[in-house]
Amino acid sequence: MKDYLNYNVEDLAQDDFFILWVLSTNISAETFWQNWLERHPYKRNDLEAARKLVLKATDLPTPDLSEERIHSIKESVFSRIERLENPSGPRLSWGFRSYWSMAAAVAGILLVAGWYMQKEQALSPMELSPFATAVVEEITTKEVNNESQRAMLVNLPDGSSVTLSKGSRLTYPSQFGADSREITLSGEAFFEVAKDPQKPFYVFAQRLTTKVLGTSFNVRAYQDDDEVSVSVKTGRVSVFQAEGTEAQKPKGGTELEGLVLHPDQEARFVNKEIKLVALPAKREPKAVDIPEELRQMDFDYVETPITEIFKELEKAYQVRFVYDYTVMSKCPITAQLTGEPFQKKLHLLCKAVGAKYSEQNGIITITGDGCE
Fold first, then answer.
1. pLDDT digits over 127-163, tens only?
2. Which of 95, 180, 214, 364 could form a disulfide with 195 if both were Cys (CB 3.0 to 4.6 A apart)?
3. Is residue 338 part of a domain?
4. Cα separation, 300 vs 83, whole angstroms
5. Helix-strand-coil percent breakdown of the chain, rounded to 5?
6. Minimal CA–CA distance to 270: which of 204, 218, 221?
7. Residues 119 and 166 in one domain
């Protein structure tokens, strides 16, 4: 059997057995891939991206080419795919030939789109290039590795914010799907999730899956640790085993399966069991580089100068604000921002005082006329 764990998105999209699963109702393929996904939930984003690519290939534009030229292109692509095939993998029967054609179409996007247009000049770059570019942008999976010595702020496509501890890794798609928002974590991170009840937010961390609709919480899941933990600051989250029955349910929906956690509660997964514990009022920090201000402080203000709020945000998110103090110091703010993602906090603050902000490399620049 092929080692699909080492397959990237492009490899999966060109694999005959994967294409069979996407385009047919074959029971063997359905059983295999569902079981494989249950064992490796952190590969869900790659499978979804590859699935989209296969489906997108069915909409490829048909070029105006001679039969001889089409035959030549097909043979070239088939040869390329065969060279990429795992020699020890299962042999393909002739009944799968139509799925090889689909693999050829996928390869046409990934391999031929650029190479063939330049070498063979059979397709106009103006006709195919935007299409190929759109597909690549749609399926891009981003991976952030925090190799620094301090926590790193990561803003997700939906507006959620993640404070990623040093030595941790976060994987997420460039754009989330229609029914859910799914990311993979190795290490520790504090999440502030943008509210969207119709698109639940999933965190796959080692053997534990966390589902939320919009809240703030912390996940600790290092590969070498025997324990995986999830603690809640605001809202509610549900946790369940990646191999459990809850993980097999369709994604989407507002129901919280498994063990539901409330503020100041923590779930710990040890020896294949999930235990619920109440967090003490004062507790020692786990990842010392994630500021405790972020995990414990309430970002609620009554007539507080916005400059003071900027200082608190700098300390909590480890960013730097640049602004004109004489202009902004006279702007009082009354707002409840606890649990809101970082960008939502900035948006509401700037809207309240008629200012604008820009963000680059951890530096937040605020511009505006002030409140006089």
1. 434 544 454 455 567 889 998 888 899 999 999 999 9
2. 214
3. yes
4. 60
5. 40, 25, 35
6. 221
7. no
